[in-house]
Specification:
Layout: H1 9-21, H2 28-35, E1 40-44, H3 50-62, E2 78-82, H4 93-96, E3 98-102, E4 109-113, H5 114-120, H6 124-132, H7 139-144, E5 147-149, E6 163-165
Helix pairs in contact: 3-6
């Protein structure tokens, strides 16, 4: 095996030979080889929603992307997730989402928000999300051994990566600006975003700051 992967030296050379010739890997041997071999996939989690990311990873770990999938057999592939420190949640889930557990001792109830869990360990939130989408049986621990999460871009599995995957869905956009100041001489010059209304601002003056009279 090469670098702890699942490709033998003979099979590795055969794949590289077909790639050099420009032959697509559609022969019977390559299809059977790729079906019954555990491949390594790389996913960049930077800016991705935790739920969408966990859905894609859980399907690969279970082997649902293969024709040989069966619920009682561990036929999934390896998944490497980088930049887990930059994952996002929709809405206000960083503060509202709570993780609870019990130590087993009297008064051992514990609770933490997703923001605190992510600050302590940037890989824990993604791992818990993927674990919750896997079957609740003895195969779950074995499937999680094929999940490799790193908080930055560096990882030791460069030579084992078979393909880089992209999570479906748009990357989380930046937070919108709540207030936009525009200078205009008339209402026709003001561009109002779709779904919003123009609200006139009322300025109140007190005795210490009286309004100026333009006639004087």
């Amino acid at each position: 095996l090469i670098d702890g992967g699942d490709f033998s030296l003979k099979q590795k050379r055969l794949i590289e030979k077909e790639k050099k010739k420009g032959i697509r890997m559609t022969s019977k041997f390559t299809n059977a080889f790729l079906t019954h071999t555990k491949r390594w996939y790389l996913i960049d989690g930077g800016g991705q929603r935790v739920g969408r990311l966990a859905t894609v990873v859980a399907n690969i770990l279970q082997g649902k992307n293969k024709p040989t999938f069966h619920r009682s057999v561990q036929s999934g592939d390896h998944v490497v997730i980088v930049n887990s420190k930059d994952v996002t949640f929709s809405g206000n889930k960083w503060e509202d989402k709570k993780y609870t557990w019990h130590t087993g001792w009297p008064g051992g109830f514990r609770q933490k928000s997703a923001e605190d869990m992510h600050a302590k360990d940037p890989t824990d939130v993604v791992r818990r999300a993927v674990s919750g989408m896997l079957p609740k049986n003895t195969l779950r621990k074995r499937m999680l051994r094929n999940l490799h999460i790193f908080e930055d871009e560096t990882h030791p599995y460069e030579r084992n990566i078979y393909k880089t995957l992209t999570v479906p869905g748009e990357v989380a956009p930046a937070p919108p600006k709540m207030y936009v100041i525009q200078e205009a001489t008339s209402e026709d010059d003001i561009s109002i975003p779709k779904g919003h209304k123009l609200v006139e601002e009322t300025v109140l003056f007190n005795s210490d700051n009286p309004p100026k009279d333009d006639k004087k």
